[in-house]
Amino acid sequence: MLDLIRRLVKEEEGQGMVEYALIIAGIALVVALAFPTVSGAITGLFSDIAAEL
User: What is the pTM of this model?
Assistant: First the structure.
């Protein structure tokens, strides 16, 4: 039983995958927070174009 616990503590195979998942989650959070600002700017741009036409 102790050998199993020692082996589980030493194994680091899934560590890289978890790090990539955290990076992707961080990027997704930034995109989700920036989306309202960007969509508001695009909407304003199209409104200006429509008003000029």
Answer: 0.54
How many degrees, rounded to 5, is the angle at CA 17 between CA 29 and CA 25? 5
Q: What angle do CA 44, 46, 51 make, to 5 degrees?
A: 95
Question: What would the two tokens of residue 17 be?
Answer: 């995958």
Residue 11 has what pLDDT?
65
Provide the token pair at 38.
């960007």
Q: What is the distance between the alpha carbons of residues 10 and 3, in angstroms, rounded to a whole number? A: 11
Q: Which amino acid, one-letter code, is at 45?
A: L
1-22: buried (b, 16+ CB within 10 Å) or exposed (e) per residue?
eeeeeeeeeeeeeeeeeeeeee
Write the pLDDT tens digit of every residue in 18-41.
888 899 999 999 999 988 888 888
